[in-house]
Amino acid sequence: MKLLRAIAKDSRGRILLAVLVGVVAWQAWLSLAAPGKVAPAVHYAPGQKVNVLVTLSFPPDRFHVLAFQKFGRVTGTENNTVELRGVPKADLSSVARPHWVVKVEPLPNEGA
């Protein structure tokens, strides 16, 4: 309790506390928004792994392609989308979590 009072009295402590609260709120928002970015059709696809198109709000750079390779095989990019194959269904929220991901949907030729 003494520590909290000391932090509340010091302006640097209040700034640090505000930044900490902001970071935690941002991370919570990313986690809560991720499932809404995944199209329902992706979950109904047969099998444990799915092939998806990940749409970004801008053309992907090398950084973004490398980030998606953690979850599956990147087989191409076109405009603002990245084609990602072999993504485990359990990792779909992780794929959709970054703030630069707009939506995750099944590949058109997958029939889902």
How would you portray this structure in words?
This protein is of the alpha+beta class and 112 residues long. It folds into 2 domains: 2-35; 36-110. The protein contains 5 helices and 4 strands, in the order H-H-H-E-H-E-E-H-E. Helix 1 (2-9) crosses helix 2.
List the main descriptive attributes of the protein structure presented here:
112 residues, 2 domains, alpha+beta, 4 strands, 25% strand, 5 helices, single chain
Mean pLDDT: 87
Gap between N and C termini: 55 Å
Query: Count of helices?
Result: 5
Principal-axes geometry comes out as elongated
Put the structure in a nutshell.
It is built from five helices and four strands. It is of the alpha+beta class. A four-stranded antiparallel beta sheet has the order 2-3-1-4.
Topology of this protein?
Elements: H1 2-9, H2 11-37, H3 40-43, E1 49-56, H4 62-68, E2 73-78, E3 81-88, H5 92-96, E4 101-106
Antiparallel strand pairs: 1-3, 1-4, 2-3
